[in-house]
Design brief:
77 residues, alpha+beta, Arc Repressor Mutant, subunit A, two-stranded antiparallel ribbon, 4 helices, 16% strand, elongated, HTH_HxlR, WH_DNA-bd_sf
Length: 77
């Protein structure tokens, strides 16, 4: 993902109240993002989307797509 796209998406998430942004006054520059309480409410939606993706990897691979599961950490709900 191009850096500018990531920056734009993070700014939109911050504007919408889903994440907070903390800028550290140091060199090299450092910025951290965290979920707000409102952002945490999206976890259920993201969990369902992840489960759907995991459930459909085999089908997509059978269709010839080069799909690899990079991480399989179920979130604690």
């Amino acid at each position: 993902m191009p850096e500018q796209v990531l920056i734009q998406q993070l700014r939109e998430l911050e504007r919408d109240g889903l994440v907070t942004r903390h800028v550290y006054q140091q060199m090299p520059p450092k910025v951290e993002y965290g979920l707000t309480e409102y952002g945490v409410t999206a976890n259920t939606i993201v969990d369902v989307m992840c489960a759907w993706g995991r459930d459909n990897i085999a089908l997509r691979q059978q269709r010839g797509e080069d799909i690899v599961l990079l991480e399989n950490n179920d979130s604690e709900s």
